[in-house]
User: Fold this.
Amino acid sequence: MACPHCGSGQLVMGLAAAPKRGQIRATIARLIRSAGPQGLTVEDLKDLTKLEHQTVSARVHDLWRAGEIEQASARHTRSGRPAWAWRAVDAAAAEASR
Assistant:
């Protein structure tokens, strides 16, 4: 089914990507939890999952907005640019702060 406004298959591709998006989000959340308090950067997650930077970054943003992860520390990427490492939010601490 093509997008009626643009004449392409974008609508179908977007709908088909929804379940995959959830699986990617769950995988990234699991990896961040398993990393412990030092966390992982988007670059680390990209290397572990072999996904595109934009895909990993978007799922990290989703997890952050949902309150499941928080910034752990600033690090430098291989290219020397600063990047945040992300760690899982302790469920008990998150509940206590509400």
